[in-house]
Amino acid sequence: MDRYFVLHAPRQTGKTTMLRTLASDLAAEGDIAALSFSCERAKIFSDDVAATETILLDSLRRAADLSGWPDGLLPPDSWPEEQVGTRFGKALSAWCRRCPRRVVLFLDEIDALQGESLVSVLSQLRDGHNIRPDGYPFPASVVLCGLRDLRDYKVASGGAPDRYNAASPFNIIRKSLRLGDFTTDQIAELYDQHTQATGQEFTKDAVDRVFELTQGQPWLVNALADEIITEMGVAGTISDGQVEDAKERLIRARATHLDSLAARLHEPRVKRVMEPIVSGDFPHAELTFSDDLSYVRDLGLIKQKPPMEVANPIYREVILRVLGDVSEQYVRADPHSFVLPDGRFDLPRLLEEFVVFWREHGEVLIQQEGYHEAACQIILMAFLHRLVNGGGYLDREYAAGTKRLDVFVRWPYRGPDGEWLMQREAMELKVWRPGADDPKSEGLAQLDRYLDRLTLTSGVLVIFDRRPEAPSWKERGGFDQATTPSGRQITLLRV
Description:
The longest helix has 22 residues, at about 345-370. The strands form two sheets. This protein has a six-stranded mixed β-sheet with strand order 6-7-8-9-11-10, with helices on both faces. Strands 2-3-4-1-5 form a five-stranded parallel β-sheet, with helices on both faces. About 45% of the residues lie in helices and about 15% in strands. Strand 7 (about 405-415) and strand 8 (about 420-430) form a beta hairpin. The termini are far apart. It has 18 helices and eleven strands.
């Protein structure tokens, strides 16, 4: 108490529910008037400080009216008329002056405010905080809750970040807190609440698979369970196979949370971070990169700690599907034609078809692709997705600095006795860039390690030659056989 905090976490992680619960619990103690209200309605006003102050005070009053408090705790019937840029802070002071309890405020969706409006509100909160010791009535504690940390107001207010002049109008916070993700045990505990209420159980493998796919991201954890129980209508014990089906359904439906996340991918700040992750390159060492990196971490798109990689497998798949949307529209091949008579998937033929596709459309699609440095990887992923995902599964692994993108194809089919079997194929994608050495040797060693992990005896190495002096199509040789350092025979494709 008597401290000011910033609380931030990605969307759909339970921030609003937590704030409302905490406000209710504090108010129930009897000596605190704790109130949570949203700033979201003010986001359209940007630099209109007067309109922003009016909307915020209206939202605060409405939240107080709905709180069920006695009249003596409520804000004044009318807010004082004050100069624009001081009205919000003086209104809070007027309320604290008449309220017999200490006032605690939770400002939810604070980063909905933009431009001068955000700067003004933060400055008024800071000024009130700083003169409280002189007897000025003002909230005893304030929590600003939003999508990202407000450590540098210039970014949030639309200005360019400047590490050498980072003075903030809200430099009084005691601590910036981030809501964490669920652990495996917490997911099991959460799902057990459903079991206790209904008797329907989740197997341990199902819980483990949920954690593997989501890395504990709260919205995804809840969304997978809801998809299985409500949308798929599973009645008995829930297995890891049903979790896998739910994941596919969520991604195909492009649920609101996933869609809003995907919409961020073409923001310049996000692209500067995500493009080297998808391409496997190291990011450019720009002065503002650390600020961009923090922003993308706050969005929940990538993991909180190095190395730079996507936050979870579901996001990894969504990102490549979104980026590959345009390329996928060019794929005309019939997915069913790649299924062999015995039910397995014809991967060699798919690769042959991709070579034809690349020769016909590759350069056009590269020019259209916003993520130019990752265009080769995105286009092949779009081709694979179009032809594999109808009956099989694609798992992708990529991260900044790895210089590769790994692909794992799983294709279920019926064996000769009617039993379900799983075809497993591994591929590695690399790009030969201008001025670099041939990545073949490095790719073979990396593919070896990938195959070791998957316990597979063979795989495919695809090398995109993007050098200006690259040989013509006829001279490249297309498909070849190569041997990894451990002696595995693999297919080498140069395009």
